[in-house]
Design a protein that fits this description.
By secondary structure, this protein is an all-alpha fold. The chain is built from 10 helices and no strands. It is globular.
Length: 211
């Protein structure tokens, strides 16, 4: 696969990622932008707090599906066109970047948690399921969505590095993509991390959390 084709897939993934469902659904429901309500974050957690469980779940599923769809398409293309195995990883990074910095909405999006989950579940189903279970358990015990998300991002990087070392199949492009995917989750929660350390982070079920 040529560099041009890789760039085309990367651009398409970014544009698909830029379709932010929380912003679209909030405008349809109330005429308001979700970024002007609650925590101001364009994501499923803020939709849950602002519009209730139903809309929170719908947004969560759509965001996950977005990541799943993009990586599946890239995986099929990589196999059918004899492309490099890292194409799905590049597409995964780009769809998350689109969600976080959407072209259609002034580059102000969400934190990419659900979309990243969809990406990881397709890239590496076993690792994805382990991370998902770990994150859910952390959130259930602590009620900190941000903590579960940050730990999930870190676990993904560590798990992929261990797998490559154990298999003696280190791929620099894939590893860089994994570091970006996990790193974005951590960096996008920098304000939450500060509040977690200071003990002022809001828990799930309280208003105004996950800013």
């Amino acid at each position: 696969m040529t560099t041009v084709m890789i760039l085309i897939f990367a651009a398409a993934a970014y544009l698909i990622g830029s379709v932010n469902f929380s912003i679209i659904l909030s405008r349809i429901m109330s005429g308001k932008d979700i970024r002007e309500s609650g925590s101001g974050n364009a994501g499923a957690t803020n939709m849950l707090r602002t519009y209730g469980k139903k809309m929170g779940v719908i947004t969560l599923l759509l965001d996950i599906l977005k990541g799943v769809l993009v990586v599946l398409l890239a995986s099929v293309a990589a196999k059918s066109l004899g492309a490099a195995g890292y194409l799905p990883y590049i597409a995964g990074v780009c769809v998350v970047l689109g969600h976080n910095f959407p072209l259609y909405f002034g580059f102000k999006g969400g934190k990419g948690v659900a979309t990243s989950l969809g990406v990881v579940l397709v890239l590496d189903p076993i690792v994805g399921l382990i991370i998902m279970v770990a994150a859910v358990l952390i959130i259930a015990v602590t009620r900190y969505v941000s903590l579960g998300s940050v730990v999930g991002g870190a676990l993904f990087i560590i798990a992929e590095a261990i797998k490559m070392i154990a298999a003696d199949e280190f791929d620099i492009v894939v590893m860089v993509c994994c570091v970006i995917l996990g790193g974005l989750l951590i960096v996008r929660h920098h304000a939450n991390i500060k509040r977690l350390l200071s003990g002022t982070e809001n828990k799930l079920g309280t208003k105004g959390g996950d800013k």
